[in-house]
Amino acid sequence: MVNNRSLATLGQGVGFSEIIKKLSFNHGWAPYPYGAVEKNKSVENKPIRVGLVLIDQQTVYKQQKTIELRHILSGSSLYWLAILDGVELKTNTTINCILDQFCHGYATLPCTTEKVHNLLVNLDKLHEWQDSKPLSAKVDVGRARMIGSPRTTGKLFERIARFANVDAPVLVHGETGTGKELAARAIHESSARSHAPFVAVNCGALPEGLAQSELYGCEKGAFTGAHQQRKGYIETASGGTLFLDEIGDLPLAVQANLLRFLENKRMMRVGGRKEFFVDVRIIAATHVNLRQAVAARTFRDDLYHRLNVLEISLPPLRERVADIAPLAEFFYSKYRKEGSCKLQGISQETFDIMRSHTWPGNIRELSNRIRQAMLYSDSPLLRPTDMGLDRRHWGRYITSLELVRNQAEYLALRESLANHSYDLVRVASELMISKVTLHRLMEKHGLKYSRLPYIHYLNNHIS
Ligand SMILES: Nc1ncnc2c1ncn2[C@@H]1O[C@H](COP(=O)(O)OP(=O)(O)OP(=O)(O)O)[C@@H](O)[C@H]1O
C-alpha cells in the first residue's frame, strides 16, 4: 500500500483510535495529532488537507468542549470528516450545526474503515481540486465572518470571489440588515485593493447641501467655513473601495457628477479648477428598487446602468430559512465570549420559532435579539420568550400562506427524519414524496448536511 496521504486527527476515544490505526495499517494514511499539524501546517513536508474529528457525548454535552471544538474547527483550513461516537443525530441541533458549519461529512461508529477511507479519499481530492481552482470562495472578511448554509451563502461567496477579481462597479441590493455592507467588504478584502482603504458612506445621511463637498472634498475658501483644503470620501478611498450605501438617496445633482466620475475616474474638489485621476472602485447598495426609482425619475437611468455592471442580490432572512440556525449559533458563540453567561445553548423550540419569524430587520435583528436575550436569560437554554418571540405570537408573525406552508413542511420533515434516523427511503415513503423532492426540501429547510452532496458527487465522478 502506497502511503501518500496524511491525516490530521482530533479527539481521543477507543473506537476512534481503532479506526485511525486501521486507516494507517490497511489504507496507508499517515495520521498526525491536530496540534502537530497546526504548528507546521504540513508535517514532514507532506501537505495535510483532511482531518478526522471525534464527536462523542462529552464533546456535545460538555459545553466547554463544544466551544473548544468550534474554535478549532472554525480556525482550520482542513476538510473535516466527523466520527460520531455514541451520539444520535436526530434532532440534536448542536451536532447538526457543527456538522453543517465545519464538517464535510460524517460516519457513525461502529462503521467500516473502508467507508471512512473512501470518504477521506474523496475529501482529499475535493480539497486538492478546490486548491487548484483560480477562484476559491473566501469566508473570512477581515476580522468579520460571513455565515450561512453552503446552499445560499456558497453561491454568494463564489460571486464575491469572482467580482473581487474584476474592477467593475457592483450594485448590491437587499432589505435592511441582509449583509450588503458585509458583502461589499468581502469583495474589497478579497480583491487586490485589500491593502487600501474601504470607505463606507451612507448617502441617505449626507446633508443635502453638503453632499457634493463630502464626496469630492473642497479647496480652501470654496465656501464660507472652508478654512482649508479637505479631501472628500472619494479621495480618502484612493486605491481602495468606496461603498455608497443607500445610493437611491443621492441628490440628482450629485448623481450627475458621480456618473462623470465613473466614466473616467477623474474628479475636481468643490471650488477647484483642475481635474485629477483617483483610482477607486465603487460598490453601491440599495434597499429600494432602483428600476422603480428610475421610472419615477428620482434616479438617473444612465447612472443606474453604470453602477449595475455586476449585481449581487441578498435575499431577506425569511427566505433563507436554512441560514437561520448557523447564523444563530454563530452569534450565540460570538456573544458568549463577551460576557460571563451561564447559558448552555439555544432550545429546539427557539430554533423552530426563529424559522417562522419574518425578521423584518433580517440578520441585524437576529444578532440583536440573541445578544439581548443572552443578557437577560436566566434559564439553561435560550428560550423563545428570552428573544421576544413567543409561540402564541406565531399568528402575528405569519404573514402569508407560504410561510404557514413552510412551517408545516419543516415540522413534518424534521419529525419524520428524526423518527427514521435519517433513513431517506423510509422518510420519503412516509411523507409520500419522491426521494428527489425529499432532497430538495431537506436542502430548502437546512436539514441536509449540505456539504455531503460534494462527497456523493465525488463518489460518482472521481474514479
Ligand atoms: N452572512 C452573515 N454572517 C454573519 N453576520 C452577518 C452576515 N450578514 C450580515 N451580518 C451582520 O448583520 C449586521 C447587518 O449587516 P450589514 O450592515 O452588512 O447589512 P446591510 O444590508 O448593509 O444593512 P443596512 O441596509 O441597514 O445598511 C452586521 O452586524 C453584519 O456583520
UniProtKB/TrEMBL annotation:
It comes from Franzmannia qiaohouensis. This is Sigma-54 dependent transcriptional regulator. The keyword Nucleotide-binding applies. Residues 146-375 form the Sigma-54 factor interaction domain. Keywords: ATP-binding, DNA-binding, Nucleotide-binding, Transcription, Transcription regulation. InterPro entries: AAA+_ATPase, AAA_lid_NorR, Homeodomain-like_sf, P-loop_NTPase, Sigma_54_int, Sigma_54_int_dom_ATP-bd_2, Sigma_54_int_dom_CS. Gene3D superfamilies: 1.10.8.60, Homeodomain-like, P-loop containing nucleotide triphosphate hydrolases. The keyword ATP-binding applies.
